[in-house]
Structures are given as C-alpha cells and as structure tokens.
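Hi R.,

Here's the chain you asked about this morning:
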Amino acid sequence: MDFIHDDFLLHSNAASVLYHEFAEHEPILDYHSHLPAREIAENLRFENLSEIWLKGDHYKWRAMRANGISERAPAGNVDSYERFLSWARTVPCTLRNPLYHWTHLELKRHFGISDLLDERSAKSIWDRANSLLETEALSPQAILRKFKVRALCTTDDAPDDLSDHDRINSQSLGFRVYPTFRPDKAVSIDSPQAFLPWLEQLSASSNTSISKFPHFLDALKKRHDAFHAAGARLSDHGLPHCYATPSSDRKAALLFEKTLAGKPAAPEDQEAFASCLMLFFGRLDAEKGWTKQLHLGALRNTNTRALRELGRDAGFDSIGDSKQAAALCAYLDLLDGENALPKTIVYNVNPVDNYSFASAIGNFQDGKQAGKVQFGAAWWFLDQKEGIEAQLNALSNNGLLSRFVGMLTDSRSFMSFPRHEYFRRVLCNLCGREMENGELPNDKMLIGEMVRNISFANAESYLGLRLPPPSEHKSGPADRQ
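And here is the predicted structure, written out as tokens:
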C-alpha cells in the first residue's frame, strides 16, 4: 500500500466516511496566504521542481540546516538540482516532522508520485515532476483550479500595487484573488531607518503629502479604501502581542514628528503609538465590515548573523513566550467599548496560550454575528497533526467548533494546497474516533454537515468575499489530469 493512500490519517470507519463523503470534495477558500499575485496574473511557468517547491519555503530550509547541510543549499545561489538533492537527502531525516507528511502528500497530489523521496529516488522524481511542470497543467492558474480554490487572499503591505489582483479578477478564471491589508510597518517608529523609506512609498501610493500625523492617517485610510475597491475584505497584523495602551492623538502626533526627524521611539512610546494605530485600523475594518486577523506571539529574526547575511523571513524565527491574554482582551475591549469591534480572527503560535485564546474569544461575541470572534487555525509551528488537534480541542471545549472558519495555507509555495486536505483528514479522524467511542452521536449527517461547513461554507459565509459565479467553476482539460 502506498504511504499516501485513500484513508491516510483516517483510523476508523466513521473517520473515513466523514472525510470521503463530506470533506474531500469541498472547494477551498484560502483566506490567508503569502503567494505573489503577480505570478498568478502572469501565470508564471516554473522551470523545475526546486523552483516551485524549495525557493521560498523556510520550513524546508530549517530542516536542511538541522541536517547539517550548508547554507548554500537552502538559501544560497546553487544549482537547482543540487538544492533539490539536498532536500531529498534530508527528507528521510524528517520522520515524525510534519514535513514528511506534507512532502509526500504534495508529490502525490501535484504529480501523482507515490515513491518515498530520498537520495535514491531523487533523480526519478526530479525527472517525472519536471516533465509535468513543462505542461500547462501545473501553471499557477491551473493549480488553483485543480485544487478547487474558489478564492485566495494574498498578504500585502499598505503601499503595495494592487493592479495584479485587478488583472486576475477581470478574467473568468474560476477563482478570485484578493489582497489583504497588512500595515505592520506603520507602527515601526522605533526604527526610523526602516519607517521613513516606507513612509515615502505610502505617500506615493496614496498620492498624499505626509508631513503631519493627520496626513499619515489620511494616507492609510486612502490605501484601506483602495484595498476595499480591489475586493479586499480582510486585514492582518503580525504582532508580538496586542497593543492596548493607546496614547492621545496629540502624543501620537508628537511621536510621529520625532520619527520624521530621525529619532527612534523608546519602547514604551512605540507601544503607545502602535496602540493608537491599532484602534484606528480596527475602526476602519469595522466601518467596512471587514475581518481583522491578529497573528500573535512569534519571536522573529532571532539570529542576527543570519539576518545580516540573508535578510528577514529566512527561517530563524521561534515561538515567543510573551504574556498574551490580558493584552488581547484589553485590545478587543477597547474596540468593543466604541462599538467598533470588527469580525476578528486571532491566531496563536504558543501552545501554552491555546486555552487563553479560546476562552478570550467568548468574551466578545455579540449575539448578532455567529462566531464573530474566532480562534484561528493552528498556525506556523503548530500547523501539524498534534497542533491542529490541540487547537480544535481548545476551541471545542470553550466555544463552538461548528462555527469555526477552518483552514488556510499561510504559505509562499503553490505546492501547499494539500494542507487543506491534511487539516480535513485530521478533523475527520478526531470526530470519527469520538463517534465510534460514543462521545459524539453516531449520526453521519449531523457530524458530517459540521465537517462540511468547517471545510468551506463557514468561511464563505463569514468573510463576505465575492466568489466567482458557478459558470466559471468548470475545469479545462489542463486541470483534469
């Protein structure tokens, strides 16, 4: 039997029924990813397996480093096959790491390859995969259709050009691609050398001369409006913790002027400024009916040598141990007190905080919008079988699993869409086991409809994204391999 078989991760008859009848064929709404819209708009063709699979995947880079492979292979300028061979040598060492599951699930679903990847099978897999990459069937647009992606949300800085999203959505491709407003750099007044060049970009993109704090807020609002016009209905913030100690507008203005003069803000001043802005962003989201996403707790770029040599987002990040619960509740409370709390999804990266987050969301449900505040899918270091089950358990024990908006890829790779399948299998196995143990009713329609909704329908209803009409959902010949 192949390693990736029909009942992979499904360890009961009930789990198999739930997955194959209720989850397997549901479409995908991938509402948080880091895929580049330009590559989709241009339908970029990938030269080889290394380019589509290893180019930006810091999960794999970390594994190769841990396996004693020189930095030249993960992030350096090496021959494509050499990089792939380094990964092939690493894969057998990833047993019990989710990368082992993801690797073979991706090979199976994209290329129909069932072989286990190692140094011996590398050349054969390389050749077979590359021959398929030469065809239209594995272009970015064809991949989105193949995996029934109805809508994809990219992650975009406030000044970013959104024309590629418009190019995509002006065509009948069977899916939509929308930007997500992520203005993290707007709060970085502790680092004028980074903040000031970014401010120039914001000024240009918003056509606003920015010399005062009100001009700054006006420019951000104009960009928020532009994102809305491009179809955006979500914002996102990657924060060490929620900022919930706001300054007055007067103090924020003074801090802004000091930053314009090149003076870095002290930590407590940066916290106050960021808190002021986070309230401003919350109000903008609430006014437009958007969903705010809060990715909390990551400890980023911890290796200063690697940061200097390789730059940011190269795989040198960790789970942080900041105290999260009080700040999260305080931030949500400030917005709720103004009647300006938008729909919100909070993502946790530290398993210690699962129950804090899962209980906190219950404090701010309003009785009008089902599941208005969501405990988001297991994220980053927790995005694996054990972490997914822990998030599902914490949510189930403190809230309503039936209202959960489900999975996303959070990925920079077009190979990552099988992570939705992985999540659905874990969900079905968890529920199926409890059905057979008598902890849930042995009612496949009752449990199955919940699974179906978590797989797609809950996110569709909650997020309010405009999806393509049914006439666009038919796949072309290249999508039915």
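One quick note: The chain has two domains: 47-137, 139-479.

Cheers,
M.
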